[in-house]
């Protein structure tokens, strides 16, 4: 299932940036022991959530009980986003914020997702089907250890 | 107890609103400062069936209280802002509503996720 979702997401990425999708495949194959452990759980409101562990510390990237309400508040707080406006997401987590943003804004809104953890990014595209969102517009993914140099170019 | 619950509910709401809308990042520290009040209110729920609930319902409540307290203490230990916000807003808030609803006689059917 995880592989199926992974390929589906990469296939969607190929529509916009095939080189990036290929690079992700290579990075995934060659990667060593993950720096952080990412555990996927289901929240009480049936959303996939991530718990990340590194050394002695573990952190949730979404609420265990309610994922949807904080997302709704976040979108409300953002307000109307105009066409061609750039929106930068710092950290992709389980993809819930990316999904919400894409589903609630015009295709002309430019979405950039910077993910500082390759482990979390790979887990996101393996666990969560984002193919519809990725196909809908060219989301700029900038991932540590993959293409972070694009941020400064 | 109702007064204490209402005061605590106001503090919790403020902390959560400022976390979500003003991006305040000290939610764990602010929540930790409420430990005494939380303990006072929540411990009553674990000491006995003070609201005269059905046994099964009371067992569920006890289990819910333990889950909330576990998340609250773990969020402090791990300095986990997301877990703390969730525990306060969608866990503790439900428990406070029991006091508020019961004492005021309003909305007795609304007990959140319990």
Explain the overall architecture.
The complex is a heterodimer of chains A (153) and B (114). By secondary structure, chain A is an alpha/beta fold. Chain A has one domain. In chain A, 40% of the residues lie in helices and 21% in strands. Chain A has helices at residues 2-14, 18-30, 68-78, 96-103, 118-127, 131-136, and strands spanning 37-42, 48-54, 57-60, 86-90, 110-115, 140-143. In chain A, the strands form two sheets. In chain A, strands 1-2-3 form a three-stranded antiparallel beta sheet, covered by helices on one side. A three-stranded parallel beta sheet of chain A has the order 4-5-6. In chain A, a hairpin with a 2-residue loop joins β2 (48-54) and β3. The longest helix of chain A is centred in the N-terminal third of the chain and has 13 residues, at 2-14. With 114 residues, chain B is an all-alpha fold. Chain B has one domain. Chain B has helices at residues 2-21, 27-32, 35-47, 55-78, 81-104. The longest helix of chain B has 24 residues, at 55-78. The radius of gyration of chain B is 14 Å and the shape is globular. Classes of the chains: A alpha/beta (153), B mainly alpha (114). Chains A and B meet through β3 and α3 of A and α5 of B.
